[in-house]
Amino acid sequence: MNKKTKWILWGVFLIFLIVYPLVFGIYYTNVFVTFTIAALFSVSVNMLLGFTGFLSFGHAMFFGAGAYGTAIALAHIKGLPLLISVFIGFMSAVLLALILAPLVVRLSVTAFAMIHMAFGMLMYTLALKLRNITGGEDGIGGFPIPSFGVPGIFSIDMTDPTNFYYFAMAIIGFTLWILWFITKTPFGCLMVGIRDNAKRIDYLGFKLPQTKGVVYLIAGGCCGIAGSIFALFQNLISAYELHIMHSFTPIMMIMVGGVGSYFGPILGAGIFTMLGELTTRYTERVELVIGLILIAVIMYFPLGCIGFYHYLKTKYLKRKAA
Amino acid sequence: MNILETKEVSHDFRGLWALRNVNLQIEKGERHAIIGPNGAGKTTLFNVITGTYVPSRGKVFFKGKDVTKAKPHDMVRLGMGRSFQITSTFPRLTAFENIRMAVLSKRGIRFNLFQKVDKMKSITEETDAILKRINLDGERDLPASALSYGKNRSLEISMALSTDPEIVMLDEPTAGMSRDETHTAVELVRRLTEGKTTVIIEHDMDVVFSLADRITVLHHGEILAVGAPKEIGENQAVKDAYLGEMEV
Amino acid sequence: MDATMAMYVAQGLHGLAYGMLLFLVASGLTLIFGMMGILTLAHAAFFMLAAYFGFQVLQITQNFWMALIVAPVAVGILGVLCERFLIRKAHVMGHIGELILTVGVALVIMDAVKAIWGTESLYLKVPEYLQGLVSIGGLEYPIYRLFIIGMALLLLIILALILYKTRLGLIVRAAVSDADMVNALGVNVPLVFMLVFGVGTWMAGVAGVAIAPILTVFPGLADQMGMDAYIIVVVGGFGSLSGAFLVSIIFGLLSSYGVQFISQLAPVLMFIFMAIVLIIKPAGIFGERED
Asked: Under CATH, what is the fold of the domain A3-321?
């Protein structure tokens, strides 16, 4: 694919994003926002899992930190600008990551996964128990959603689903672009190196814990942005979003879409958003379905859809060559 | 002048002494081979020097600095490169990306999140030059896991050298190679380590005698003899140790 | 014994009983991890499943002992099948694939349980001679909890005897400290793996049935205890049985005294303990391996 077609494709995609709410209506516009939030969440987690080789069963806590950060700030501070509220969500998640990082960066893969599960459960319990801060099971809802704009010059109402859609697309798109860019930098090389052979990275003169720590902050912070947008979108955040099932969701999306690639998790998020629309209509056994999908993917399609696509492609090319 | 020195280094694994009072002295610019029967403690000595372990007793000095407690990345930053007996490349990365990792380290590029690595021309050029020098330019874009054993070994060795260290520690560079491959690898080592201090663990005596300026013989974790290849070849204690344990 | 003292002792015994059960769950995990390098996240689900099986067996046979024997064995067999047909065949991304796979198994079990038995709490009745209180030196204490402590001790002794007195035990211990050694011993490794997985799951099953009369059987049963068991394995040091034992007892006591004095923060205590240990020693208290 040459540069020109690439730009044209991106242009087409941009136009699609712009017309989407006008064509598909409010319901599907909201579905799309849900999808992009899930996509950002998964891509962030995949920075750890797919690129650096670290599995976490607790990243819902960073999503939650972002969401609660934004929600609490908006509920308590009058006239807080929209972007600042998102930034507060982002910083809450980064802060949580900063606290945990020194503890977790030296752990082995298994211990890392387990500790996150434990901390995830802890955060869930705290969110339920610390009622006066988090609102317990009811969560925090009905906080004011600020308009987007410059006071006195212009102001866009964010309670309007279409307006919010454009706002969410801008923030999430920008964050996704940053994450994609990071994978292309020398630091991105380093991440993949840690995944492939951490010992050698150490013997090439890179400091492992510090490097992992930076990835950890980036992943955590971006989960926080996803959470922050979620809180604004739903105008509600409750302890449920911190539940361990919510930590499994991105892992599943990553596995189904393709753990080895940047775009796999986005594809996975898309598939699950669609499946979610379908399964909730026909069955209550969501966990059962998720469990079976996880087993099937690990057993038969370890590299997910993208991996399966590459497999088919090489097979096709071989047959063509023969 | 000694660039690398260990003083009375001992190391034990749960009561099992792998090294006992080892005083190793490496002169600047020499090629120094460490030989000894299996289990003599050669790799343990490497691990102690390169920062994998802190020795139970004794001290390690590099360029006159006490580096006993230094970590592997500290040693690399001080100017030491190391290759491994069991090939330790990045299996899913291409040959190019493997070498590039070392080049990035050499340039001190560690936390650059603001530039696309593909657009950093001088890095690409330097990496390609290295690939060409080790005859891997044909396999530039193949993942390391798809390379032949010999080529993967070349990659392993040259990664240790691509950080441009003052001293290289090569742990059995010809391990598991065929005769032809060994020959190529020795030539490669000779070419790449020109003018650098080199410490090499080796089993193949032909390789040792053709490469090394000086040899240290380890036996049961202790230094048995040090000297030029000719002296070592005539040393009775060394002959006994080898006849007793190796030729069986 | 005055009232305060009695309370202290009673809480201590409570903690001991809980710690013992925790160790039954955690030791299975530790053995499996030590042997195969896999932390099976389905363990807590098997633990819970055993409680449901126990309930079902009790319904049918009206015999508590049958429940205590049959249900863990059934779960053990399920564990073996899971190892043989799923875990053994998952080879992707090292341990990450196995971890995710066992999460899948756990989710299926937990949801299947809800589908079959519903979400209501179910009660397991123990025989009359295990009900009620017994008086020891002025302290009134439930017989059943003493029974649990005794049974767990008995299992522990049997486990220790097998590990330290038999050839199988030798193989397992060798494998835990050095996986390559087993291959050198010329043993049918897959068979030993399957056996260890089965026994580990069985022990979790015993704990599941044993705790059911105290906590009742409900879908959330796996959450607290399972989580504690996983933390124990991490904190005690992967693959270290003595580490698992020590931390199990500490956790048992922490939780019982914790509930007594700072009930709000009791769940947090263990996390603080875990954090402190891991800051000082990332491989866990008795941990040496890191994989």
From this structure: ABC transporter involved in vitamin B12 uptake, BtuC (1.10.3470)
